[in-house]
Automatic annotation (TrEMBL):
Signal peptide: none annotated. The keyword Oxidoreductase applies. It comes from the Bacteria. CDD domains: CAS_like (cd00250). It comes from Shimia marina. This is Gamma-butyrobetaine dioxygenase. Its EC number is 1.14.11.1. The keyword Heme does not apply. GO terms for molecular function: gamma-butyrobetaine dioxygenase activity; metal ion binding. Belongs to the gamma-BBH/TMLD family. One of its GO terms (biological process) is carnitine biosynthetic process.
Length: 379
């Protein structure tokens, strides 16, 4: 049977189960109470601020009944109930690694081996079935990209994909943009040139965190799409050059775009961005849009450039890429904070017409979390 004990000063609680012992601070428990006086019962948002809680919050009583912990706090005498399962799931009294370069939870790094099983969903099924939609969205969370097939071949069909989880993010390129050869293009994406794998719009802060590209015509020779896992590339760099990895994390690069009238976008972010605990947060890589590097000290600039070159070579390695040629009615989506996308060059014969748009990952993750909660409740 679980047991609870309070410290002599009432500032800590220890929950002892068969397998573990977990400690909680009184102030943390009070802050996370879910009673009606602390949180709105409808939306779960806090009704209090930290200034409303006594600085010297303590625990005066604790009792366990049928998996529920009842606590009374001092000095205000407030009482609240806690589900033991919730406490265990949210426990913070545990080892918390802080090594640089850890993958985020629920993600998997990948290389060209994923060509054998490219994550894919069929639009009619994904649009009509919550379980199919959750499975497709989970692919994006895990791998940072996924294909979509069986879309209606019509202009604007990419909005149907975004409607599955969120909203289009409009930019200076418009609500969507056309990707096909143009005369005097404002962006190299609108030519037949091959493009190195890159993340889009690194000159924005924040960057659009999702990009959708949908195919309407593709009879030109060449023009295959490629995707590369930026996290896998960063980890490979760390393995062969840990000092260079640290430099690309430590110093900000500069990115800029001023390719059309009235626009001059600029940002300063690391090429490899880590969370404070060392978890990989984002990769920004775009050789077309990088500005002069001025934030790296003179004595480390050569080593920084060496690491930059190594990362570029890793990204160009065919062992890192997944390649596919989109057919009309097919599309793919990438997590633009992680997955780099590229295009092989294509000839002037035939036609190649894709449409692209941006969206935000928080909407996708919110939709996925809600669908998973529904599935858990129904199980």
């Amino acid at each position: 049977m679980p047991q609870v004990t309070l410290s002599a000063d009432g500032r800590q609680l220890t929950l002892q189960t068969d397998s573990t012992s977990l400690r909680f601070h009184a102030l943390w428990l009070r802050d996370n109470a879910i009673d009606g006086a602390t949180r709105d019962p409808g939306n779960g948002q806090r009704l209090i601020t930290m200034a409303d809680l006594p600085a010297e919050t303590t625990l005066t009583q604790a009792s366990l009944t049928d998996g529920t912990l009842m606590l009374t706090f001092g000095p205000d005498g407030h009482s609240a109930r806690y589900d033991l399962g919730w406490l265990v799931a949210n426990a913070y009294d545990k080892p918390q690694p802080r090594d640089a370069g850890r993958l985020p939870a629920q993600t998997s790094a990948w290389t060209s081996a994923l060509n054998a099983t490219v994550p894919t969903g069929a639009y009619p099924e994904v649009a009509q079935s919550d379980s199919a939609r959750a499975a497709w969205l989970e692919h994006i969370r895990r791998y940072g990209f996924a294909k979509m097939t069986n879309l209606p071949v019509q202009s604007g069909n990419l909005f149907k994909i975004v409607d599955l989880f969120g909203y289009v993010r409009e930019t200076n390129y418009g609500r969507h943009f056309e990707v096909r050869t143009e005369v005097n293009p404002t962006n190299l994406a609108y030519t037949g040139l091959g493009l190195q794998a890159h993340t889009d719009n690194p000159y924005r802060d924040p960057v659009p965190s999702l990009q959708v590209l949908s195919c309407l015509e593709n009879s030109a020779e060449g023009g295959e799409n490629m995707v590369v896992d930026g996290f896998a590339c960063a980890l490979r760099l760390k393995e062969i050059n840990p000092e260079g990895f640290d430099l690309l994390c430590k110093y900000t690069a500069r990115f800029e775009y001023a390719g059309s009238a009235g626009v001059k976008l600029q940002s300063r972010r690391p090429m490899i961005e880590l969370a404070p605990d060392g978890t990989l947060q984002a990769v920004r890589f775009n050789s077309r849009s990088i500005a002069p590097l001025t934030d790296v000290p003179f004595d480390e600039m050569e080593a920084y450039y060496a690491a930059y070159r190594q990362l570029s070579e890793i990204i160009d390695d065919t062992d890192m890429e997944v390649t596919f040629k989109l057919e009309p009615g097919e599309a793919f989506i990438v997590d633009n904070t992680r997955v780099l996308h590229a295009r092989k060059g294509y000839s002037g014969a035939g036609n190649r017409w894709l449409q692209g748009c941006y969206a935000d990952k928080d909407g996708l993750l919110s939709t996925l979390a809600a669908l998973e909660s529904q599935q858990e409740a129904a199980a």
